[in-house]
Amino acid sequence: MPGIRAKLLGFLLPLVFILVATVAAAVMRITDAAIQRDLLQRGVAISRIVAFSAGYSLLSGDRLALDSLAAETGKSSSDIEFVAVRDTGNIIVAHSRVEERGKTYDSPDRSSLLGSFLETRADEVSREGHSMFEFTTPVIFAGKRVGTASVALSQESLLLAQRGVERSVLITASIILGIALLGTLALASLITTPVKKLSAGVNELAGGQTFHPIPVRGRDELGDLTRNFNRMAETIIAQQDRLSGYAKDLEEAYVGMVRVIAASIDARDPYTLGHSTRVARISCQLGRRLGFSEEELEHLDKACLFHDVGKIRTPDDILLKKQSLTQHEYVEIRTHAADGAEILNMAPSLKRYVPVVRAHHEWYDGNGYPDGKRDSEIPVHAQIIALVDAFDAMTSTRPYRKGLSPAEAVEEILRFRGTQFSPMLTDALVEMVKEMPQQETAEWKGMAL
Fold this sequence. Notes:
Elements (H helix, E strand, L loop, with lengths): L3 H57 L2 H13 L4 E8 L4 E4 L14 E8 L2 E8 L2 E12 L2 E11 L1 H37 L3 H11 L14 H18 L1 H28 L7 H15 L4 H13 L9 H4 L7 H7 L2 H10 L8 H6 L20 H16 L10 H10 L7 H13 L6 H7 L1
Antiparallel strand pairs: 1-2, 1-6, 3-4, 4-5, 5-6
Helix pairs in contact: 1-2, 1-3, 7-8, 7-13, 13-14, 14-15
């Protein structure tokens, strides 16, 4: 049952997070639109100035003035990609890049209209794989069109400004969330202060220490709670044998919970249903061959059940994808080891499994992830899980491939002996698989498939 502190955090923090996230998203959208609008207005203004200034020089053939206009305008701002003035025949008569003069003004590789501002047209274009904003304004002199002025602005300035705003918004949102967390913790502490003595009494009772009845200080609800707690403690102490039975039931329930969590994770994908249970079963069998104690086998069993808990954070469109993953999707799904460690680290009783869950995709030669550990740096339970996890994955059928036979899987694992897998553990697994029943038997199907 969550405590008062957890309930307050669970209720208030999501509300604050949603509010802050909504406001931050709205601010970023509005700011991004404003930044783009300002950029477009600046590009339109520059294009019009160039067109206005180039009219007489273009008509009179003053190439020196046109060259100076294009060059000086191009140098006026670092985000100006180019300035071009062309005649009615679409021939460039002036360009901020000298080598373009005299050439035909080519159309962009890709163009998308952003808007028209009176006689000026703004487009998002791509030239030679480089995206930019291009502004085109007709050059009019004495009521006659004598050419066209084009100015291109880099998108980098827009992206830099947007990233700056996003960074500021995220920092502000983080500060607000931090303040909200501190405020919630302070409120929770204020509320939980009257029950600290009860908590101390619970700790004495749970730790098997000599229980000291808690003094009753008032006649309110807290006083009633204290009196009832004292009576409950006396009853528990008087029935220690029965309490031992309850403790055993709770332990069994805990183990059941672990298995339910593991099954829930596997059940997200029908093709991995039972994967964690199979990994736990084969890993423990391998552990027995290696001489592990029963306590160590129990820890190994639970670590196996938890090893893929980080996939809770993996989106279904990646986890359930029937085709091969893209590079981006592969990078994202690789985070499940660190995600699982982070999730388990939230529960003190599960912290012992954190190093194993985090390291179950490390390689013996140091080329694994997420930390690049190698050899003895990797917990032995993690090395066993890595080995059995690969074995089960290879012998399980997926939508995009048929599962390998145990013999084929062993052959594949031997290819990575000493690189991905520990040589000693690999040899032990191979020997164990050779002694297992054949694939077609019911016992083997329950074990490996």
